[in-house]
Amino acid sequence: MPQLDRIIVFSQIFWLVLIFSLFYAILTHYFLPKFLKSLKIRKQVIDLNTNEILKKTERTLNKQNLLVKILVKNLEITSNLLVSYFGQLVKGKKSVDTLIIDQKIGFVILNTVKFCDFKLLSSIFVYPKSLKFKN
């Protein structure tokens, strides 16, 4: 059988080792550094983008916290003014025209719904005056 001839097997092994060694040397010397360089650049780009996203997220959270603080402060001031105004009306036993007040509050709520986030709106607790005095 010519396939099992010892003379043919040694030459085939020699050329296999030689071609594989040359191919391996070319790949490791020329292509592997380019491949590693591209991987390193991709990793750096991803790290830079991640840092930038974290910075922008932190700035956004700071602005949202500041907005919530301002809204809570202004709502507290508004609540105190409304309580004092209605308290004065009740003490003076004057007739209260709530139509104008209802229209203004409705206009404010409409603008708030149009221009604010629903998460922010759900964080605002509004209680009726009767519940405020029962506590």
Would you write up a description of this structure?
The structure is a single chain. This protein is an all-alpha fold and 135 residues long. It folds into two domains: 94 residues; 39 residues, no CATH class. Helices cover 86% and strands 0% of the residues. It is rod-shaped, with a radius of gyration of 38 Å. The termini are far apart.
Structural class: mainly alpha
Which stretches are low in confidence, meaning pLDDT under 50 for 5 or more residues running?
none
Q: Could you estimate the helical fraction of the residues in percent?
A: over 70%
Mean pLDDT reading: 81
Number of helical stretches of at least 4 residues = 4
> What Rg, in angstroms, do the CA atoms define?
38 Å
What's the structural domain tally? 2
Query: What's the shape?
Result: rod-shaped
- How would a crystallographer describe the biggest sheet? none
Report how far apart the termini are: 105 Å
Share of β-strand residues = under 5%
Q: Kindly state the number of beta strands.
A: 0
- SSE order in H/E notation? HHHH
Could you write a compact summary of the structure shown?
This protein has four helices and no strands.
Topology of this structure?
Elements: H1 6-92, H2 98-115, H3 118-122, H4 129-134
Record keyword descriptors for this entry.
single chain; 135 residues; mainly alpha; 0% strand; rod-shaped
